[in-house]
């Protein structure tokens, strides 16, 4: 009973929120961001379902609200960016690389929206470094030298700063090192176009850029719920039908309110 009430409430909010402007973060082609790194196994098929061979070259996940979907693919899939390390800011003092370091990545994955963490920016506010975008670099990777991230171990006592301020620049994917390897381009063929989308060189035009999977399938764009004890939890959106534009059911019985 309570569950039904919650569901109807969530559905009502979903219908209301659909009348507002797009929830996704619109960002300029060049700007500032943060960069973290994450483990992506070689040949792994990530959210966009780009071919496994894409992992043989530098790839990154982009924070959810800029990626443009809460699941599977979004408009960022396949886009290429030149990322330049600026400085660290969690270390004391901040570290500035002695020589400039840049890398061109292809976005193949989604960095899920979290309540804190570096991928938590929404239109309402940035992450803890004041940035709306976080690039989560697949690293370590055979495609990137192990010493890509500069460090000063003798001074700081560690080599991994974890998070960096960076600048990003949208670049033509002809600049990506995987461009000349046909097997690293495009999406896997065994999933079907409904769940895979990885353009070789998206221009932003609708004919060569992925739509938002979650918008297209009526899945919540945020997967945050407030529980009855007032804590915020992330839940996995579940599509339960195709009649209303937002279909979202919380699988946690204590959930009382979801932002959809
Ligand atoms: C990436 O940015 C750096 C720093 O601005 C620049 O030196 C480099 O040429 C750029 N690389 C590409 C491929 O655009
Ligand atoms: C993201 O998390 C930081 C704390 O890590 C917080 O200060 C910031 O307000 C959060 N941003 C959003 C949009 O929730
Ligand atoms: C880097 O991060 C710090 C701390 O969040 C911030 O104050 C600063 O403006 C950022 N940008 C640069 C270019 O240092
Ligand atoms: C490490 O940092 C210290 C203090 O800033 C500096 O004197 C030293 O030259 C640095 N070493 C390297 C290898 O960057
Ligand atoms: C990238 O460059 C190629 C070759 O110059 C061009 O055909 C293509 O339209 C460019 N892509 C974008 C997204 O601008
Ligand atoms: C996509 O549409 C643009 C015009 O909107 C056109 O210039 C371009 O050639 C089209 N690209 C493809 C791959 O059909
Ligand atoms: C609130 O409830 C969730 C599960 O519903 C639980 O994981 C969490 O620890 C609880 N938090 C507090 C502060 O009791």
TrEMBL record:
**Which residues belong to the signal peptide in this entry?**
1-21
Keywords (A to Z) from UniProt: Signal
Q: Does the keyword Lyase apply?
A: no
Specify the protein name: Expansin-like EG45 domain-containing protein
Taxonomic lineage of this organism? Eukaryota, Fungi, Dikarya, Basidiomycota, Agaricomycotina
């Amino acid at each position: 009973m309570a569950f039904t009430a919650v569901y109807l409430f969530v559905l009502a909010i979903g219908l209301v929120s659909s009348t507002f402007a797009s929830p996704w973060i619109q960002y300029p082609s060049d700007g500032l961001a943060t960069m973290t790194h994450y483990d992506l196994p070689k040949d792994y098929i990530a959210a966009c379902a780009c071919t496994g061979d894409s992992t043989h070259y530098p790839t990154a996940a982009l924070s959810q609200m800029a990626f443009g979907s809460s699941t599977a693919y979004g408009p960022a899939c396949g886009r290429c960016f030149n990322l330049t390390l600026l400085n660290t800011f969690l270390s004391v003092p901040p570290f500035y690389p002695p020589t400039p370091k840049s890398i061109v990545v292809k976005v193949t994955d989604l960095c899920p929206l979290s309540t804190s963490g570096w991928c938590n920016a929404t239109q309402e506010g940035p992450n803890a470094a004041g940035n709306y975008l976080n690039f989560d670099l697949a690293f370590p990777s055979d495609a990137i030298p192990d010493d890509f991230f500069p460090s000063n171990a003798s001074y700081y006592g560690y080599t991994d700063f974890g998070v960096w301020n960076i600048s990003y620049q949208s670049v033509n994917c002809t600049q990506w090192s995987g461009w000349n390897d046909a097997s690293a381009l495009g999406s896997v063929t065994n999933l079907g176009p409904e769940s895979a989308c990885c353009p070789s060189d998206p221009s932003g035009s609708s004919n060569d850029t992925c739509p938002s999977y979650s918008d297209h399938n009526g899945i919540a764009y945020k997967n945050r719920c407030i529980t009855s004890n007032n804590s915020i939890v992330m839940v996995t959106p579940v599509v339960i039908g195709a009649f209303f534009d937002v279909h979202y059911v919380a699988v946690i019985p204590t959930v009382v309110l979801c932002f959809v």
